[in-house]
Design a protein that fits this description.
Chain lengths: 507, 257
Amino acid sequence: MARIACLWVPDLSLVAALRAEPELVASPLAVVQAGDLGGRAHVLGAAAPGVEPGQTLAEARAICPALTVRKSSPERERAAAQAAREAAVSISPRVEEAAPALVYLDASGLESLIGDERAVARELVAAAERVGVRAAVGLAASKSVAHLAARAAAADLTLHATRWGVGGGAFRAVMPEEQREFLAALPLHSLELPEELQQSLRRFGLQTLGDVARLPPGPLAARLGTDAALLWRLASGEDSSALEARPLSEMFEEGEELEWDAASVEPLLFVWRKLLDRLAQRLQARGLMAGEVLLKLRLSDASWDERALDLAAPTREVPSLLQLLRLSVESRPPPLEVRAVRICAEPVREVLEQMPLFGPRGASRTQLAAAVARLSALVGPERVGRPVAVDRWAPFAAGMEKFSPPSAEGVTASAEVPVSLAARALRPPRTAEVRCDDAGNPSLVIGEGALGGRVVASAGPWRTVAEWWTEAPVSLDSYDLELAGGLLLRASRELASGAWWIEAVYD
Amino acid sequence: MWRDPTALDLLLRDGQIRRAPALAPREPEPLPTGIPPLDAALGGGLLRGHLHEFVGPPGAGCTALLRAALASATSAGELCALIDPGDSFDPAQRGIDLRRLLWVRPRDFLQALRAAEIAIEARFGLVAIDLGDMCVLPPAKKPRGVIEVVRFEKKQVAPGAGASFERLRLPATARWARLSRRAEKHGAALLVLSRAPQAGTFAAVSVELERGRAQWEGRPGAPGRFLRGARSVGAVARHRRMPPSAPLPFLLPLEAK
């Protein structure tokens, strides 16, 4: 038998505000429509005695003078709705998002994984709380009854702050044998029916769904229209609509509207920190890491400034990501003031590895990825990676690639390695004045610091003329020089200009 | 039988099975440098969990030994990190398995130490810090017999200056002490290349090198003359578990490019 669960977040605007600022749970709070905070703004959600949605702000303040007011934030609500959807996905792979913050999921067959139906519903509430969302969960045989069960559970909701947002969710599991009884007891005024139909039903003296179910469907539809026919089907528990599981976007997003336009990085850092904390928690709840991170800044002219972070490896470490965000904005500041921020993370699966039981413990892939991300944040992503020799004629050219070491399995150590004189590249090469003797051999080097002295031995020149087909042609004579103190250098003379460079020191 | 908690006791009592002796924690194998005389003087190689210093002037072969240690470790499958604030590493030279080497190019000395700490915490087998191009000499020693008057003043801390600025004021010895403790905790072999001793007593092993004669092939000024390599002499000047070594001569041929 099919079992459908419904995860619903009532008062989405209020939950989204408290998810961003959980410390406000203790104070009376009202969320009003976006725009100015004038007295005519309408209350969208409230957690204050006597304050109801639909009141004007002036009315709400008259009822509760100590009211804390927040503007509704589409970015916050969008993130909260997405978090609720992820909570559902973490329990069942077949999920249908009917509306923002209203998600149906296929709960059939979850008993073997989680337990009985109450345990499944409880786990859904807990999954929502893990991503900072207070949800009402209903579980029944069809979508419509599951939704009604979630609405019934909403009466039992409480509100308390959790580490990642707000909690206090509730659930109602309707067993097949108690469905008729459950539906019969539901008052009609608790349903979102058209006002005209509500009035007609009231005139007929109908109070509950049970009253409607006892009427013959044909005459009811003939007198009150198709809406009444649908209501009768609902009251009788007839719902043939199937769960339409659709592939969901796998991008994790957290956003925030700023109270005033930000013109520097510092105020953004506070906002980013909170967004990244929530994003990391959501990723952790699903056992994922951020493979790619996108920063979107809505500017004061309503345009979006988008930039992708260059992550060396998947991570969910907040300090590293925060540092990378800061580096990105400092290196290329947005052209206008910032009005809203959105951080998007493309998730990748976390890799878990079995460590060796005997012998020293090495680095796991996750640890390596986190370390590379931290190093990238510290020194810049372009300065961390695997060294590669560049296929160029320019002396001591080096490049970097992404560090992804192969497995050490099957590697046998060689007992002896060849030791050779190593060249320490000077990047960029140091300029020097070199004087030559009558034969054209270098005799004196005047360079920076210790890179100078009388030449006691030399070899060369070795001519390199290459890459003339590029914008940076190589055309030079190279020498190996031994200075009077014993220092060994590789120096080159540019053929076109005659300028001398010291390119490396042998050590 | 398997669900009976007393079954194991009965088997032990009957002598059908015996309790295995507790496994003593084994001393981790050192990381060989790949140079047999140096490994012998080091007691097998670089000690895991300890700080090592290779000290010598440019041309003495410190970089050659560092590359040899990296080559030996990477060929054994160890992951290595090279912290190179001078940006002097040349990947074109052979020997090191570059796939297992993480190259980090910090912008300054402080970043280099922090980067080394991160690499140690990530459990890289060998973390090498190349300070060969950085001027981080220890402060000059004060002559004996000089009395110095030290005056203590309470510093006014600027508003907003917190713990993060405190870290910058740590003396160099404290930084090396911290790095040495990290290496010990996470079991990484830490290798520092420098031109003058840096870590002081926090270095478990100190190898000092001296420049030798350069080896030239061919007649001066004649075509075909080239640098064959150089000689150098090293010695393990301090080792926490071994006596100082005798001078170790090294012949460092120049690799043909």
